[in-house]
Each structure stands twice: as structure tokens, then as C-alpha cells.
Amino acid sequence: MFTANDILFSRRLFLNRGVQLLSLAGTLPLFLDRGAHCLASDFATNPAGAGRPDDHVLVVLQLAGGNDGLNTVIPLGSDDYLKARPTLGVKKSAALRLNDNFGLHPSCSGLKHLYDAGDLAIVHAVGYPNANRSHFRATDIWTTAQPERHGTSGWLGRYCDSACAGEDPGHATGAKKTAPVETAIALDVEPPPALQGVNYIPLTFAPANAQGGKGRDRAGQQMAGDLVAKLNGAATPPDMMQSRHAPSAGAAETEFIQRTALNARIYADKIRNISATIENKASYPQTQLGRDFKLIAQLIASNLPTRVYYVKLGGFDTHANQLQNHPRLLEEVSGGIAAFIDDLKQLGHLNRTTLMTFSEFGRRVHENGSGTDHGEAAPMFLAGGAVKAGLHGVFPSLAPEKLNRGDVPFTTDFRRVYATLLNQWMGADDQKIMGGKFDSVELLKAS
Amino acid sequence: MNKQSIQRDGRRGAVAAILLAFAIICPITAYATEAQWSRDDAAHLLRRAGFGGTPTQIEAMHALGRDGAVDYLITGTLPSGSEAPFAHVELPPLTFSLEFDSRVQGPAALYSLQQMKVWWLDRMVRTDRPLEEKMTLFWHGLFTSGIREVRSVEWLANQNALFHREAIGNYKRLTHEIIHDPAMLKYLNNDENLKGRPNENLARELLELFTMGEGNGYTEKDIPEVARALTGMTGRRYKGFGRQGKSDASGGHAEFVQRFHDDEPKTIFGKTGDYKPDDVVDLIFDQPQPSGYLAKRLWQFFGNPSPSDDEIAPVAEALRSGNWDLAPALRALFTSPAFYGDRSKWVVIKSPVELEASTLRLLEEPSQPRMLGAGVFAMNQLGQQLFEPPNVKGWPGGEHWMTSSAVFLRYNVAFAMANGMLGQNFGRFGFGGGGKGLKAAKATPKGAAPAEAAKTDTAAVPATQESVKGKNGDTATVDARRERIKAIRQEEAEKVREEITKLPPLPSPGQMVLPSKLFAALGNDPTPGQIVDAAIARFVQQPMPADKKATLAEALGAGPLKLGEPESDGRVRKMIGLLLSTPEYQVE
User: Fold this and answer.
1) CA B575 to chain CA centroid, nearest Å
2) A224 to chain B: nearest residue by CA?
3) At A404, is the secondary structure helix, strand, or coil?
4) What region, left, alpha or beta, does residue B245 occupy, with left being phi > 0 and alpha being psi -120 to 50 degrees?
5) Pseudo-torsion of CA A72, A77, A83, A86, nearest 10°?
6) What is the ipTM metric for this complex?
7) Which pLDDT value is given to residue B252?
8) Do the Cβ atoms of B197 and A255 come within 8 Å?
9) Going by C-beta distance under 8 Å and a sequence separation of 6 or more, which residues neighbour residue B474?
């Protein structure tokens, strides 16, 4: 009934025709430039960026709702699979063949192309012990990487907290150590929990909003914008901000809002400039994900010091009508990723980019008639110039007696994948961030 | 349990609730904090248990005393001789002005959904029973259902009517009702939950999100058993449903289909029996968890994001001893000293719905359908689409409302409201643009190839696509059906355009927000400082730092102010717009 395009389209109009006070942020407030922006300052002293770990970028694609892994990476000609999936099962002849034993869903021609080009790695049956089948708990587990307890920070948020212990200059107390705000950017309406650190809060933009439109009354808007900036503390240096509010009930919330407003002003303008000036080299499918990836490619190719990008696609909770809905979703994912990787290759940024997909769980081996219920382990995809292409990990037996409560048992713990990326790709202290040691998986080429 | 016995239970509960309220709560708390009940407390209560109050309304609430004010919000009754804070308002029932068929999810259904959202926002802005609307919103966030999955405006209208009926009703009775609610049954796939082919979606959320809390008092083994007990409960549509103006009874009904029900014994919470759907609800409410679970959710919605066990306990106890009636529980919450303490005051970021409804209330403007339409659209952009929560967990709220993208929009919307421009500059959405927007799916988005627009058009009707593909694979038939649906959609778009032209035009911005009305107490030529102070008192309702007050006075500009004169009023409106664009105004 309401497509993403409909909403994005109207959002753009909203900005074009709305009052749009804040579209034209002025120059950066002084104190921001003075702030302990270690990533930014590092970038300023070494603009080429080559060879330093800060060069590397991680892009995360969340498939929300629980992607049916068994109908994404197909066990070719498996009797157990076809018996459990009399209506939904993909036949060997229809699948896009990867090797003798596995193929991709017919909607995944883009991913098949990447696989053949050596840019795609697939990890079989990723999960964790005692899998939870609740969307929310399972999503919490994958985003916090803390299955044993109810964590409140995301694994990439903790990376940001520890990546660069500069002070967040927007915070009034100045005591909270975390990376500069632009370390991670999410294209979503809400900040993804995976990027929420103990202290870190990611920049979050709905894509069309970030790209925005042109204002009408520029001078008037500039003036109004300046007043709004004053009322939101943007024009006041942080040491003065500290004394402006006597400690009172709710002071923490107003400070938080003040900081959010300031960051929003500055980075929306930066992103808008980038999207207007950097040209993509590949053509993207006209889908939500296509548009998101198009913008992320532009941001990667710009001089932003951002290390993590996050994008989400929902709708994978295919309890019913899976035959109609799942192929469409897979096509959006496959087409979006393929265009993105192609674009980065042509832009010359593929070697510093790794993309990772995850979903909170796979789905039940046995179909329920028209769909599949919540399950356990599922494959993860990694793409980019540095990944070791091919199939990784062990695909478990689907014989009914080998299943875990009817679900695919995991053979690779997702935390091993995270730890590998943190350590070998982001150059971070994986044990500190993960709260323990997880053996690496051979997913990346030796650099 | 049948409907009659549910109602009987409810009446018993109500009697118990009243006895409990008088016997326990009043004597203990009345003398303890009633004396300290301040004007600020009255303002806080109105912001949380309603959508805020004007200075006059706050005074009237304060005059009722704490218990009187709380009772007025819960029951609508006043101590004799006291003045009602809100004048009585007759609110129109929900009606749809166009015929539509939800099976063809075209412009008429979309327009009807928009009408329903506007109808609800209008209630929140105008009602004299704000707690009832707030509780309806609470239930919508707890027992979530969304249009994307339900795909029937009428079913969601019926569900909303249920939430209104049970707004300050009975938790257990509502839970019984909700598993008979077609929208919910569809939303959580219980129409696919059949004997031999259980679908666990409703079972899981019933325990996890609706009554007990994740992993709290049940095990993974209970889920499939509860699912089996719920088999056969499904939603049915009446033939020809969705025809004009039928918002209540005609939208369809729930049906228990015996042949789809699994009659084998089930073991739930360690008890075994041939449980039917309603038995599951009875079993759940025999457990200790639901009272604490709902009490915590109520505290989080009305009080503070992380209530302590000590804060939750009295509310949970009121629910249990009141046989799940909401009135004693809400009374316990709103008379609790912790509700008025520093842990609860100014710690909540207003939801988009609260932001808009309270701002429109405080601007004291008459409701305009075009303005409300734009308001509804803006709410969508701010992350809160009524009848379309992000997922079954509802809106996460709190700091999640204030993303770097939402902050722009919040301030822009606030500025538009304060300047009488909500609906003026908003082309296609809401009811603003003479229906142009409803062609959006066909119009070519800026910078996009025509092919994209065509693709969007087909993508916009997923249900139609499914029914076409599902019934017949034959290409010729498929094409014929697609053509027919296209024709219906075009015809509907035309009707929607006609509807929109019939809506009353918006008054000019200068006629919409009247500073002379808002600040009548200051006389006709107040000083800038007086105007700023009065605006802060009306809108922000908490003190602001001196430098911000100076900035606001600066924004009023030079030259004397003459309220009622267009030039001066324009300056005051701009200042109010800026005031609403502060962090202080975003919290409550």
C-alpha cells in the first residue's frame, strides 16, 4: 500500500516546500574544529589515507525479519531440503549454481555475478548456542553480540567507543570518551542498536532527507537558522555550555537534543554536498536499497572519515505468501549489492570496503504451507575487494534427526565473524569489544 | 469465556476498583502529598496523562487538588461546585466519505486511512477526555497492528474502536477481545495457524509482548502449545465489506473454525488440557507476571523510562486487586509521589503525536482538516505513523525519537504550526494539494526515468499482485485483471480529487495563530520580555536560561509590539516558532 519510494518521494517534497529553516547550516562552529577529532585530524595530516587502518570501511546490511537462508543459498538436490519444502523448495535446475553442492536462489543473479568475479564470500550456517526465536531478542543478540545477557550497547557502537578515544565535542560535560560522531553513519529513520555505544550515538539520516532540496528564501533561512543555532547551543563553546544549565531534572535530555540538533545541521549539509558533487559510476536498481547504496558509495568516495555505514531492509518475516514476497526481497538485496560493489570498483574504493549482511535468524526447515516460521542458523554474505571469495564454514545435515528443534543448527558462531572483521579489517581490539576471545574465520585475504 | 461473562467480570472489577481506591489509596496518600500539589504538578499531570494544558486549564486542574484532578482525568467526574478544566466537546464518529475496497489497495483506501488518522488526531487535539485518547494510544503501542500486514482499513478502525471502548477499561477483557480481533489475527498470521500446521506468531507475541514479557514466566516449550490452542481463530470479511460509511460493524468479524482447531491436549505452564483460544488468556492471567508487566509498561509510557520495582509494585497490586481494571492502576500511578519527582519530570522526549497534539492544543486553533492532514503526514516523517508501528514491539520512543534526521523535521513542523502554515506549504500530502499527490505513484519523481514511476505503480499494490498471481498463472487472465484493477484505481483517484476539493480551504496564516488571543492577559502593548515570558510559560512550561530568553526577545525584533496588528503578530508568531524549536520544548 505504501512503498518506500512513495514515502521518500514525499519526504523530498516536504523538504522542498516545507519551511526548511535548517537546511543551510552556517560554517562549522569554532569549537568543533578545535575539538579532539582524532579521525578528522588524522585525515587532515594524511589526506591520502593510504595504508592506515582508518582507511578501511565496513558496510553492514541488516535483513530484518529473519531471512530464509535455506531459500537464499540452496543445498542443491538435497532430498531432506526438498521434502521439507514441497512448495517453496528451489529445484537444482532452477538454482544459480555455485558449485556441485550449492546454488543461489534464481532472484540472486547479481550475487552470482559477484561470486563469479571473486568478490563474494558466503559463510554457511552462522548462529550461536541456544538460539532465540523472538525477533526482538534475536536482533538484540546479533546487534549487541551478547547472547548471555541483555546488553544495552551494540558491537559497532562499542567499536566506536574504543576506536578513537577522543572526546565527543558536542557533549556538555566533556567527560564521555567516544569517537567523533561521524565515525558511523546509518541510513534509517532510527539509529540502529548495533551502532549505539555505551557513549556513542551514530549519525542517522533518512536518505532523501540527507540529500534534501534547495531552499527558497536563503537569506531569511540563514537568519532563522542562526537563531535556531543559538537556541540549540550551537553558537556557544562547550566550556560555556557547561555553566549554562544548572543541574536540574531532565538536563540530560535537553543536552542530548542540543547535541543531536548540532550534529544534524552540520552533517546533513556535508552529506548533501557530497551527494551533489560525487558521481556514481554504476547504475543502481530503483529500489530503497539501491538508493541507499548509491548514497553510501558517494560517501565512501568522498573524504569523510566515516568507518561504518549501516543500512537496513525489512520484510523478511515470511510466515505467509513467501513464494510471492521472498524472491522480490532477494532481488532487491542482490541487485543493490551488485551495483554497489561494481560502483566501488569503478570508483577505486572497493579494496578499502567490506560489506557484511546479517539477519536475526534463519527460518524453520519445514515450510508451514505458504511460508516459514522463525528458525535458527543462516548464511552470512561478505563482499568487497578484500574478502576471500567462495563458500566458508560447514553446511550441516538437514536430516530431520540432525535438526535443532526443526531448525538448522549453527556451525559458525557469528561472534567469530564479528571478531575477525574488528581485528583484521578495522584494526580494533576485538577481545575488548566482544568481551572475550573468539577464533577468527579465514574470510579476508592477507593484507 | 463468552462476551457476556467477560462484561460481568468487568463490572465486578469496577466495583472492586472503586472500593479499593477509596479504601487504600486515598487515606494513605491524601494528606502526604495532596498538600504539596503544586501548579507545576498539575501541568506535569496534564502533559503526561493528556496532551498538555493551557495556563487556564492548568489553573483549573490545580484547583481540583491532586486526587480530584486525577479522578477527573480517569472518570470525567468533578467534585460538586468545581469548574471543569476542559469544556465538553462532542466528537464526531469515524466515517469514511468514499466507498472503497481494501482488496484493491488504491487511492480510495489510502484516502480513507488518511481520514482515519486525521479523525484520531482531531480527537487528541479537541477531546475533553484526554486520558482516554492517551490510553487508546497506549493500547495501540502495546497490542500493535499495522496496515501493511492487516491490509484493511476497516479492521484497523474496528480495532481502534475496541481500544477506545477499553481505554480505561479492563486489561484481561481486552486481551480476550484482542484474540477475537480480525486485525490482530491477520497481523500476527493467526489465519495461517491451523491444525497440523501451527504458526507461532500470535502465540509468541501474546506471551512476550502483550502480557508477560520476554522469557518471563514461560519457556520456549510453551510457545508451540499456545499456538496449537489458538489454532482455528481467524478473521472473516463480510461480503461486500468496505462500502460507504460503515466503520463499525461491517468490517468483518472473527470466527473460530472448529475444523482448523487442534483438539489434542496441550501443556501450557505445566497444566494439560484441551485448551481453546480463550482458555489461553485465562491461563495467562492466572500467572503472576501480567500485572507487573502491564504496570511497568504503564510507568514507562506515562512516568519514566526505567521505573524501579518499588514504583511498579503499587500499580501492579492495584491491577491484581482490581481484577485487571485500569482505573485503580492509573490512580495508583498518577497519585504516586514518584510520578511527580525528579526521576519522572522532564525526562521524556515528546513523541511526534504528543508534540503535534499538544502544540495544536496550546495554540488554541480550531481544527482544520487540511491542517490536520499535513500534521498526520508530518508525524509519519517524524517516525510515528498511526496504524503503522515499525514492528510488533511498537514505537521504541525516548531518545529514538530524536535522530539527526528527525530533529530538522521536528523544528520545521513546529515552526509551521506556530505560523499557521501547517497545511499551507505542504503540497501533496495530507489534504493539502488538491489531490495532486494521490497521483504520485504515476507522476515521475524528480530526476527519475519514467520507467521508475511505472515500476513504483505496480509495486504499490502488493496485495493485488498476489491475488492476481495466486489464483491463476495464465498470462492473458492476469493481464485482464491487472487492467481492471488499474481502471478502478484511476476512477478512485478521480473521486479522491473531488473529495479533496470539497474540503474547506485553510484560512490565511495571519488568521490562524492569534497572539492577541494567546496573550490577552498582557493587554495590547506588552514588552518583548513579557511576551517571551508568557510564551515560555504557555508552551515550554519550565524555566529557560537567560541567554535563550535574550535570543527570543531579539527574534521579536525592534519596534513596539501591538498585539492584534498583523506586523506585530507576525513577529510574535516567528518567536513562538523559534521557541518550539528548542530542546526544552521537546521534553515533558
Assistant:
1) 29
2) B578
3) strand
4) left
5) 60
6) 0.75
7) 67
8) no
9) none
